[in-house]
Amino acid sequence: MKKFYKIFKFIFPYKWKATASVVSNLFAAFFGLFTITLLVPFLNILFERVSLVETQPIFTFSVDGVIDYFNYFISQQITLHGKSAALFMVIALVVITSLLKNLFAYLSLWYLAPIRIGVLRDIRNSLYKKTLELPLGYYSDEKKGDIISKMTSDVHEIEASIIRSLEMFFKEPTIILVYLSFLIIMSPQLTLFVLLLLPIAGGLIGRIGKSLRKTSFKGQRKMGALLSIIEETLGGLRVIKAFNAESKMRQRFESVNSFYTHLMTKMWRRQGLASPLSEFLGTVVIVIVLWFGSKLVFQGSGLSAEGLISYIAAFYMIINPAKSFSSAYFNVVKGMASADRIDSLLYATNPIADVPNAKEISSFNHSIEYRNVSFKYEDEFVLKNVNLTIEKGKTVALVGQSGSGKSTFVDLLPRFYDVIEGEILIDGINIKEYTLKSLRALMGNVNQEPILFNDTFYNNIAFGLTKSSEEDVISAAKIANSHDFIIATANGYYSSIGDRGGKLSGGQRQRVSIARAIMKNPPIMILDEATSALDTESERLVQDAIENLMKNRTSLVIAHRLSTIKNADLICVLHEGEIVERGKHDELIEQGGFYTKLHELQK
Asked: N or C: which end of the chain has fewer CB within 10 A?
């Protein structure tokens, strides 16, 4: 029941539309019932199975009272206007009630339409919002393809299985309730017998549904694995071709795809059992009801032969809604497997969040301090008891071999991850006491691999800013040495740069990302060596842009090429998670330690 609540809570904002749909279904069921029950007493009188009623009965709100009064009304019409006129009048009444029934049935769907579409929109919005909120650490443990699968195929499965079943959940129970109430009034004994039979049929359907959900869950997980392989293939196509690994990747994909096909075949076979099983059980129940009802008629228990016919007709009208409801149940059970997977993303815990009463920080005034900082991703510590103070306006460079903890060191400052031990302070206050938004607003990032979006130059440079003028964007591009190649494109600053900046060279992409950092104009800059993968000419242009970017700012630089940080105010050498040396370039060379070895290797 808890799983149903997690999905159906998205319907709560549409409660008034849902109420209107239920009320419309109620009227539709009432007029449908009226159409059926109208014919039996009329036919009895028309074909003279019941004598004409001459005396007007007292009207009462009961089945017998309504039938007696209707018999009197028909008798009057036959006496005054003849059988043909009475037949025409009843036919007209049946047509009117049928029209009203279908009108209200349409109204229920009319109110349901915005619920079906709106719920899907809200689920997608919630999932996307959650992906933006979750920390980077969450995605290091998850496959991107599986997350994409949750946001696409799983949401589609919820649409196909649960949302499309909403009509049945709003409509069929209402019809069943109205008709069942009528059956109870007609014959409590026979209805009690029916209610004892239904749980047996429901138990069989529920047993199949349970295994269906389990199979569907496995299938959706395999779809996530398929999407992960596709995503890896598209991202690594160059390497796959270079190493002649096409056949290996194809075998891997086909193996997972075959297993997915096997699971889906099993699931659809079980789902296909829903309709024939419910129809067969319905037929069995009707036969048993007919047998038991006939016994009641023979025993003179108050149920007449005509009443049994009306009862069977009304009960038969429950079979289709019950059948539809059972099919909807199967669909929902299948869809709940996708709901489970979506929940794993939607309700994932986010350990990096604002503390209660977090402060806004609008300026950086004095220093950044790493105080006894230790951090680990899993078991082994990546940083161990690190201490460092960075004064405002200074440039601090981090060097060291791969895996020494440089990237982790800078990722802790904007709280992409939180320290395990110790604390990081800005102007003497623990960064956890600041709001995430205001803390990250103080910082600009330029990464080794520039991350750009499939948009225009203008929107990439002004990315994340609510207000920006064209003059400011052009000024930032000029400082980053980007202006000339941007205006050389067909539409200048409004030209699209392609997926991840695919229309640009490596140096151009890096200079656009630097222009974006300049546009933000933060007091603190974090640079993961931006020139390591560039040719000599591009490196010179990017290095000039970086020097422009670092002017009058506090900079934290990860350096792979030591030649780029000779003028840094402080160089820290990291080795196995610890700062083993610190000082200026010349001082470290004289020490003859780790830094000197790195310098000699690069020479």
From this structure: N
